[in-house]
Specification:
Length: 357
Amino acid sequence: MPQTNQFECGGCGAHLEFDPKTQNMKCEFCQSEKIIPIEPQPIMEHDFFSAPFATGWDRPAITFQCDSCGATTSSEKKIAGKCTYCNSPYVKERPPKADLIRPETLVPFKIDNARVTELFRNWLGKGWFTPSNLTQLSRLDLIKGVYTPFWTYDTQAYSNWTAESGYYYYETESYTVMVNGKHQTRTRQVRKVRWVPSHGQRDGFYNDVLVPASRGMNEDLVLKIYPFHLQQLVPYKPEFLSGFMAEEYGVDLQQGWGTAQNIVNVSEREKCGRDVPGDTYRFLRVQTNFNNITYKHILLPVWIAVYEYKAKTYHFLVNGQTGEVQGFKPISWAKVALFVGAVAAVVTGLAYFFYIS
């Protein structure tokens, strides 16, 4: 499929791409800009049990799937090279998913390529045990901006709980000690617990429970670049995707809801635990039911780098909205050895000082 000219520059006819700095479409050749019209409208929530409102990306795009990690991404033009996520060379073109639930909203990129490159270089140089030559890494072309899929769920949660409430009380106990060869009786206050059955119920509303739906991205790193400020969501428009990649969700709607339920269940257990009267509790059991479940499919901006150092692959993420940086780096074992040796020398010196004094 040839590159689309859906967003043509009015000045020179080149392809316009979304510019995070100006939040407009921009031509890299003549620097012409085009405003993206955003009409104020409420953000729609979809009933969990209803059919999706719209499907597809609503833009001409080429779809690629990685045979290694399974991630599926789309782009306006063919991108040669390795998988954005796992660096595997086994990437093949495939037809776009016809029944893909179209994103309802997205957060546009706020951090541009120049800024993320700066963040990347600064991050590489941090850390006591980072190899000294890591900052000389030059493969910064591996950094790519990807609109990453997420689900959000709203739900009403109703919980019933049972537990044993513990109430502290104190008793005076006697004990015997030996003083100057004689037995002496002393007393002390000992804390004990009186356990009584307890039960209760609570209900609460959960708004925008966020669930990552990416198949290729490292979920631990994704969670570390939170939060995303969802109040900045705007209606989905393909203009925002121009010049960036977009990933199809690898976690479907039902699977995402399973994760959301676990998140809510953990929260409800903590809240029910705080509701148990008394000084402490044990044997807490919580049963939570859900009602009025709605969802949104949203895209959030993430810069991704997969880089190699001494034949090993490392991952690096930047929150494309806030600039939060997280990633994995190699360790210089020579520096670790020097640090351990220095600590051992200090400990040995202190031990000798106290010994001779």
